Structure formats: C-alpha cells, structure tokens
C-alpha cells in the first residue's frame, strides 16, 4: 500500500539506492518466507484458532511500530516483523478451508483466499498513493493498524477451531476434567511423545519440499510466477512516473489492472475447477487431484502469463499509450490467478491431511523469490530495457518454459505421487 510513497521515504532518509528502495517492499515478503516454518507445525499440533488471534495482535503491534519508526533500521526491522506475524493467514488459511470444505466446493474457496495476498499489493497502492500525498507515508501504517486492530475483538468472538484433531483433543480434555477419567483420549490422538510430535511437525514442510517432487516442482512454478509479479509491482511506480509522467497519486492507479485481472481469474477459474470436480462425480467417477490440472483450463492460464509479460514490456519500451501495457498486466494476472488456483487446489487435494504444511512450503518458496527477485528489478531494466530482446521478454520466456510442468503432472502426477509417497 505504501509503494507509491517509496520515493518520498528514500528522499527523507537521504538514501537514493534502488536496492534500499526495493528492499522496503521485499523485507516484508521475506518475513513470509521465515514464519511458516513455525506457524504450520504449531497449527497441526494445537489447532488454528489461537494462531489467527495472536498473529493478528502481533501484526497490529508491529504495524504501529513501523508507523513510529524514526530510522531506516527500525523501519526494516518492523517491516520484517510485520511479515513474520502477518504470514499466519497465508500459512494456515488453506488448512482451515481443507478442514471445512469438500473437494467440489474447495476450488472457489481456495481461489478467494489466495486472492488476498496477491490482490493487496496490487490494489493497496491505488488508495495508498492518494493517502500518502494527502497525509504522508506514515499514515499508511496507521490505517493498516486501525483496520487490523478492529479485527482483534471480532476474531476472538467469532472464530472457532476447525482442525479436527484439535477439536477432538479439546473435547477429550474437557471430559477428562469433568469425569476424572484420565483414560479418555481422542481417537485421532497420536500415541507418541510430545517431543516426537514437535519434531515430525517441524520437519513436515522441509520433507514436502525436498522429498516430494509434486510439491517441489509445482511450488517452484508458483514461486517464479509470484517473483515475477513482485518484480513488476516493485517497479510500477518508477516505470509509470518515468515513462508516462504519473505523479504519486496517479501512479497508484498503475497497480489497479493487476487487481482487476486477479478478480477476473478468481471469479472464472475458482468456479471452473469446482465444476470439473462436480462433473467427474456426477458421472460416477472417482475424483483425482490431477483433475485440477486439466489442460483445457490449466494450459490457457499458463500461456496468458507470458503473453501478458510480452505485451507489457514491448509496449512500454516503444512508448505505446499507457492503457496497453496495463492491459498486458491484467492478462498476465488473469493467467497467474488461474494457474495458482489450479496448482493450489491440486496440492491440497493431494495432501489434505497436511494442507497447512503444503501451503507453508509454497509460501516459503514464493516469498523467497518474491523478496529477492525485485531487488534486481530496476538494475535489470536499466541494463536490459523493458521489451525485446531482453527485459520482460526474458521473464516471459521463463514463464513459457514452465508450462510443461502442468501438463506433465496432469499425465503422470498420480504415478509420481505413488512413487514418492513418503510418510508425512
């Protein structure tokens, strides 16, 4: 949300380094890469509810700290802590959906949930640009802290536990206290020591990352796509102010096409992936996770991503009216959202018992690239340009080379899962 204000912050701290400017955005995403290693194991041992509540309390506090920061060091530190606490929803949101939703309703729910962390960086700067111009960049964080603070009492009153083992364990604990019978146990309780449970839970995201090709390769696909998006988002303000003369307020509007594209992707592909599952069951066939990767849906989405990149880079470089590169960004984000919908639903269907750990693995990969790739964005564009033959063309060809991954897992995914079905 404070992306349009980065030039003002850089001027205020007397540091015109493009790396410093970009890192103000990236360090928040870097927190997303570290937090899931702790959040996912805790959620699969003790449940989701308290993590949501305490995560939001910490996020609100660290956002206030960011608003009060008096130096670049404090600003970096609190931005990192915001990411570490804010990643709770990104990590366990899909787990809550898997707890509550059957497969035929899960696609739309997952796509709407996944829209949040992608739509925020694209739509937030629209309001942020005008807020920064009117009240200064610190008010971005004051506004975020106010909104997050409102949800603290709401979450305490409204949120309920969804993780079945935690629900049954809480019920068994109440019965033990009520009856005095210490033999009452949840039927889902694992008969292992707590230290062993913690070790297994902590290792699960790492095991998914290194020992299950289905998660690793699809996670890399999402990570690279997410990194490309963040690279573009980190450079929108500079591109549209330098090439098209936008000011701080109107430069925020350059993020809007990405948000529109994502909403279109959610509305279209979230419904479509559920429709495919329903039709499979209506024909009396067993639903397989690979149904989420049907080429009729996945391949056009995957191709839209590089096409949008080519359109954006080539038209900016050649001075075409600003509406055309914005259309390119919108097409790219429609494809990105469709691809992420396919992959995330596929992985949740394939590993429903550890959906939070699967999402943690995806979040770690995509956040690392989302944090690090933009650091070289402005230097890359300065050296290579925006369009042909390098710049965004290079990114487009990378995205194009990833398309066979989806087709391969649609054809061979079940066989690969069977071969690498390690105990999780």
UniProtKB/TrEMBL annotation:
TM stretches of this protein: 20-39, 51-70, 76-98, 110-133, 139-159, 208-233, 253-277, 297-316, 322-343, 355-373, 393-413
Highest taxon of the lineage: Eukaryota
Domain Major facilitator superfamily (MFS) profile: 1-416
Compartment list: Membrane
Membrane disposition: Multi-pass membrane protein
Keywords: Glycoprotein, Membrane, Transmembrane, Transmembrane helix
PROSITE patterns, per the entry: MFS, SUGAR_TRANSPORT_1
GO biological process annotation, one example: xenobiotic transport
GO MF, one annotated term: transmembrane transporter activity
Keyword Transmembrane: yes
GO CC terms in record: membrane
Pfam families with a match to the protein in the record: MFS_1
InterPro entries: MFS, MFS_dom, MFS_trans_sf, Sugar_transporter_CS
Family: Belongs to the major facilitator superfamily.
PANTHER family: MAJOR FACILITATOR SUPERFAMILY, MULTIDRUG TRANSPORTER, PUTATIVE (AFU_ORTHOLOGUE AFUA_3G01120)-RELATED
UniProt-recorded name of the protein: Major facilitator superfamily (MFS) profile domain-containing protein
Organism of derivation: Colletotrichum cuscutae
Organism ancestry: Eukaryota, Fungi, Dikarya, Ascomycota, Pezizomycotina
